[in-house]
TrEMBL record:
It catalyses: 4-CDP-2-C-methyl-D-erythritol + ATP = 4-CDP-2-C-methyl-D-erythritol 2-phosphate + ADP + H(+). Keywords: ATP-binding, Isoprene biosynthesis, Kinase, Nucleotide-binding, Transferase. ATP binds at residues 94-104. Coiled coil: none annotated. Residues 66-142 form the GHMP kinase N-terminal domain. Pathway: Isoprenoid biosynthesis; isopentenyl diphosphate biosynthesis via DXP pathway; isopentenyl diphosphate from 1-deoxy-D-xylulose 5-phosphate: step 3/6. The gene is ispE. The keyword ATP-binding applies. This is 4-diphosphocytidyl-2-C-methyl-D-erythritol kinase. Residues 197-273 form the GHMP kinase C-terminal domain. The active site is at residues 10, 136. Its EC number is 2.7.1.148. GO terms for molecular function: 4-(cytidine 5'-diphospho)-2-C-methyl-D-erythritol kinase activity. Catalyzes the phosphorylation of the position 2 hydroxy group of 4-diphosphocytidyl-2C-methyl-D-erythritol.
Length: 289
């Protein structure tokens, strides 16, 4: 018996950092949604009491460092599961890109094993377990559109934003999330209009969403990675309605309503950026088959 799960990438429509906490984390408020660029995970029951991971991607560890492995281990130990599992990851989301690929794989593992092992756990319980793996995993468990607060694990679900096309471009150099947070200067930050973004989403106001895209982590990643700013400028020149860096970066996304315009942006970026994707905004959980 085996189970299939899709693990979509996320983008940040807003990302605000409020203050540094006494633990190693920052208190944040961010509106996130999902796009149709997804890893695919397969889960096979094993008789032996073992978690096996495989992925063809050379940047993804095939051992206990894999976030999917960590999610499976937490679930297995917490519910004393004696069966083992083999997890194969077909990696489509660029790694260390600000698109939460690893977190989404961990979340898909929690959803998939909940079904494979027939645990009947609620989304809330899976999200709580996910927060032990990483700050973005709870959001990824819901796999929808949401406001994420706390260190990212306090989730308030939102409706899907207005439908549009999303052009994603990832510069070659990956970014370490931890070092971006560490380098952030909290003085004189221009904060996003989080409430305004939520209202724009709720009223289906596409222009309102575009006008409010903002990510305070750009203040760290942009000066260190000139390519990110170049890609932003190129997307604007080619007709994007709005552009922003996702998460800690370095991936940049541009929003457009017409497919022809998305194609134009894609073609204009192909020359100097190897990894470019045109995808639909999803914003709600999609079941496979
Ligand atoms: C920036 C964001 C935005 O969605 O995503 P990515 O760019 O990684 O996709 C998230 O806040 C990242 O979430 P995630 O990648 O799950 O972070 P974690 O593994 O929990 O933490 C990695 C490190 O980032 C820092 N960190 C993370 C979250 C937070 N609220 N404050 C922090 O200071 C901590 O130094 C932590 O050790
Ligand atoms: N299943 C996984 N997919 C991708 N990266 C993973 C996975 N498991 C562990 N990692 C590690 O997590 C790090 C961050 O990966 P990722 O989630 O893709 O980036 P981001 O946090 O920027 O969205 C990578 O350096 C990678 O080695």
């Amino acid at each position: 018996m085996y189970i299939l799960e899709k693990a979509p990438a996320k983008i940040n429509l807003t990302l605000d950092v409020l203050y540094k906490r006494p633990d190693q984390y920052h208190e944040i408020a961010m509106v996130m949604t999902t796009v149709d660029l997804a890893d695919r995970l397969e889960f096979f029951l094993l008789d032996k009491d073992k978690i096996e991971i495989s992925s063809e991607n050379r940047f993804v560890p095939n051992d206990e460092r894999n976030l999917a492995y960590r999610a499976a281990k937490i679930l297995k130990e917490r519910y004393q599961i004696k069966q083992g599992v083999r997890i194969t990851i077909d990696k489509q989301i660029p790694v260390a890109a600000g698109l939460a690929g690893g977190s989404s794989d961990a979340a898909a593992t929690l959803r998939g094993l909940n079904r494979l092992w027939n645990l009947q756990l609620s989304m809330e319980t899976l999200a709580e377990l996910g927060s032990e793996v990483g700050s973005d995993v709870s959001f990824c468990v819901y796999d929808s559109t949401a406001l994420a607060e706390g260190r990212g694990e306090v989730i308030t679900e939102l409706p899907a934003p207005p439908q549009c096309w999303v052009v994603l471009a990832k510069p070659v150099q990956g970014v370490s999330t931890q070092s971006v947070y560490q380098s952030l200067n909290l003085d004189n930050l221009e904060h996003p209009d989080t409430e305004g973004m939520i209202k724009a989403i709720k009223t289906g106001d596409y222009d309102g969403v575009c006008n409010r895209l903002k990510n305070v982590l750009e203040t760290v990643t942009l000066p260190k990675n000139p390519e990110v700013e170049q890609i932003k400028q190129q997307m604007i020149r080619s007709g994007a309605d709005a552009v922003l860096m996702s998460g800690s970066g370095p991936t940049v996304f541009g929003l457009v309503q017409q497919e022809s315009r998305a194609d134009r942006i894609y073609n204009s970026l192909r020359g100097f950026c190897e990894e470019v994707y045109v995808v639909r905004l999803l914003g709600t959980h999609q079941t496979l088959d």
